Amino acid sequence: MVKTVLFDVDGVLLSEERYFDMSALTVWEVLNSSKYLGLAPESFKTKLTDQEIGQIRNEVFVHDRVLKFMKGCGINANWDMIYLAAAYQLIHLLEQVKDELEDRIKGWFTNEINRQVLLEIGNALKGKKVKLDYPKFLDDFQAAEPSKLGLLKHLDALAKEKFDVETNMFGKADELWSTCEHASQEWYVGDKFIFQSTGRPSVQTGKTGFMSDEKVLAPKEDIAALFETLNEHGIRIGIGTGRPELETIEPFKALEWLKHFDVNHIVTADDVLKAERENSTRALSKPHPFTYILALSGKTKTTEECLAEKLPIENAKDTLIVGDSLADLLAARKMGCLFAAVLTGLSGQDARPEFEEHDADYILDNVLDVKDIVLSLVKE
To answer: What is the assigned CATH class of domain 216-379?
Structure first.
């Protein structure tokens, strides 16, 4: 009998599309806005239609081929995707003027590139015939080791190959990464929440934020009815997500979903980061089961108690975990819990063979199908 259902968020309840839109817009901004590199400041604006956003995303990520390539190499964080795409275009642009700016390029590539340095590089490129080439990313990264670290280190390898510069600046993902991360948060949380999210004001004001305009994976009223039905049958519900707390709670408020949850059963990336700081030698994000163990406990257990939990957990089949990724499935397997795979993530129906191969207990077309499964198990 199922007593608890724990949901992932992205790819299950909310579409990942807004994160990918945000990622494309950030790369576009960092390259074109006068606040950053400034290649085409006249084309930049913060108010865009969905059609314009789609056009930018198709250009920057080459109809999502670049996104899928990165995800296939184990890049799951949008911030890393943004950084890789923007840093590569910076290398590509400077390659086109390496004879004219050789000494300055060596200086830029052996120190941290922050926003002020981007402005400096942008001024150096003014009047020069350079052009972006987003598809070239796919060609130049074919030789990279297919992992997050491998792709980051490949940026340093490209600097060596194209400029004969020995550097580890790109692989560290430090100042330039942070610059891109802040711009992306502006797009996602908007002016209203940027200081709460980052502790810093907006560099580029005028962004309302996608957080209040999420795309849901089923009608929001139907998802609310699912939560209500589960609650009415005495089934506890919770969340285990890689999103930060702000980016979980605020959309749930806007969608009028939060009232169905005890917030102590909502575990986010902030909880995981806090636990990792307490245990600095361990990575606790999924597929590690920490997120779901803490959510199941209602945050009554300490980090040490969650990590000491004997696996599989006691009465494991009383809990159903609902996710869209292999990481969710592996976390559920370690806990011994039931797992329902939902085919509404980035891969859609193409994810079915992988879930079948790993023997998911249930494979669902969308999250609303959870109700029939759970109610049938309640009756058993």
So the answer is: alpha beta
Q: How far is residue 138's CA from residue 146's CA, in Å, rounded to a whole number?
A: 12
User: What percent of the chain is helix, strand and coil (3-state, nearest 5)?
Assistant: 55, 5, 35
Residue 379 has pLDDT above 70, yes or no: no
Instruction: Read off the pLDDT of each residue in 321-347 and give the average, rounded to a whole number.
Output: 94
Kindly give the residue spans of alpha helices, DSSP state H, lying in 148-174: 148-163, 169-172
> Positive or negative, the Cα torsion across 138, 174, 273, 183?
negative
Element (H or E) spanning 341, and its range? strand 338-342
| Count of C-beta atoms within a 10 Å radius of residue 143 | 11
d(CA 8, CA 147): 24
Q: Please state, in angstroms and rounded to a whole number, the distance separating the CA atoms of residues 167 and 165.
A: 6
Which of 245, 262, 336, 332 shows the shortest CA–CA distance to 300? 262
Mention every residue, 6+ apart, whose C-beta is less than 8 A from residue 256: 220, 224
What is d(CA 144, CA 122) in angstroms, rounded to the nearest whole number? 28
The domain segmentation of the chain, as residue ranges, is 17-198, 216-379
Confidence of residue 170 (pLDDT cuts 50, 70, 90): very high
The DSSP bridge pattern shows strands 266-267 and 319-323 to be: unpaired
Please give the model's pTM, rounded to 2 decimal places.
0.83
339 DSSP β-pair partners = 321
Determine the angle formed by the axes of helices 175-198 and 78-95, rounding to 10 degrees.
Answer: 140
User: Which residues are CB-contacts of 148 (< 8 A; sequence separation ≥ 6)?
Assistant: 73, 74, 75, 80
